[in-house]
Amino acid sequence: MGTINILLCCAGGMSSGFLASKMRKAAKKMNLAANVEAAAESNVGQMVERYDILMVGPHYVGQLENFQKICANYQVPVVVIPKDIYGLLDGEGAMKLVIQTLEK
To answer: Within a 13 Å sphere around the CA of 38, how many CA atoms are in the beta-carbon half?
Structure first.
């Protein structure tokens, strides 16, 4: 697997920025090449084409269908980050979720 480009989304990009940092560290430990970026919800449409996967905070579960529509043109899967991974800033758990999703 080459470099995985991951986009995280939350309201302002702050909390997802913390998780992105933890994910970069976890990827390094797991010997995975990963580019993990965080963005505000309003920027997703302009950015998603450059990524392999979009991960959204658990508070966006109600908007999952909207994100899926945005990402469908680019064949980018959308994953809602489970509350425990998001709340604990579990970078390793998030990276495992990315791998599981992309291997499907």
So the answer is: 16
